[in-house]
Amino acid sequence: MFTSKKIMPTDKEIVTTMQKNPEKGFRLLMSSYMQPVYWHIRRLVVAHDDAQDATQETFMRVFRAFDQYKPEHALKPWIFRIATHEALRLLGHQQGKIMLSLDDEASAELFNLKADEYVDYGDKLAVKLQQAVLTLPVKQQLAFNFRYFDELSYEEIAIITDSTAANVKANYHFAKEKIVEYMKNHD
Amino acid sequence: MEQPFDLENFNRKIPYTVPDNFFKDMEDTIISSVESQKSPIKVLPIKANRRKILFSVAAAVAAIALLVVVLQTVISKKGGTEDSFERVELAFNHLSAEDQAFLLDVYEDDAFIY
Lengths: 187, 114
Known about the structure:
The complex is a heterodimer of chains A (187) and B (114). Chain A has 187 residues and is mainly alpha-helical. Chain A has one domain (11-185): Orthogonal Bundle (Rna Polymerase Sigma Factor, Chain: A). Chain A has 9 helices and no strands. In chain A, helix 2 runs antiparallel to helix 3. Chain A is globular and about 55 Å long. The mean pLDDT of chain A is 89. Chain B is an all-alpha fold and 114 residues long. Chain B has a domain at 41-107. Chain B is rod-shaped, with a radius of gyration of 44 Å. The model of chain B is unreliable at 42-48 (pLDDT under 50). The A-B interface holds A 1, 19, 22-23, 26-27, 30-31, 34-35, 38-39, 42-43, 46, 48, 52, 55-56, 59-60, 63-64, 66-67, 116, 118-121, 123, 125-127, 129-130, 148-149, 176, 179-180, 183-184 and B 4-5, 7, 10, 12-19, 22-23, 26-27, 29-31, 33-35, 37, 39-44.
């Protein structure tokens, strides 16, 4: 999915440039994080238009709040935390809430998966895997998506989800079991 | 017989797609929004404020310096006038009584003598 061959700037380069020249640094930040953030949000909210809105809002917030970022902490979890917050806020609005809780079940997104025009329904196994993920509670979805697709460490996921590495690991394993079960029992 | 789904060896592909040039267009949109917000990062306004403050301080210092120079010039001019009066008075005292009487007679009604 992220097979771009161009050399990506390191987080340190991004942060240093942001401090010296915010707009240039922000371009570097987007070149590194635009696609990972979009796909992360897209896996949660499913519909392309929603993912686009939440991604735009994420980067606007990143730019506005960058003076609050502490360089001694990793940049990636900080950005993904904002992105996750935006995605859950959008899903919460769709369900008539302020924001979706990590303990909530996600059900509306299954409908989105069936309705969205930017889905390759020809790839049946990939569609089915996404449907299986979307049946999980939000915190299991996050643990699974971040670990399985984005290959983040349990520690990084724990920072993003305000949890512990042990809890994230447990959620990831629960998620895997449920997904395998779903794939076995659904056509 | 159908093979069971192998999650670990699945290619991790997701079925979602995006429109052509989507990421480039979105990047341009976000950059435009950021630019239209007139540098929302706080670092910039602080620097701008510092520049403003420095400019104001420099202008105030320049104004004070100019005032000092003008006042000094005025005072020195005033001092010069007093000095010239003293010299005139001294020269007047050195004149003979007749000459003094003549000058007083000629200029005593001159409104512009002082």
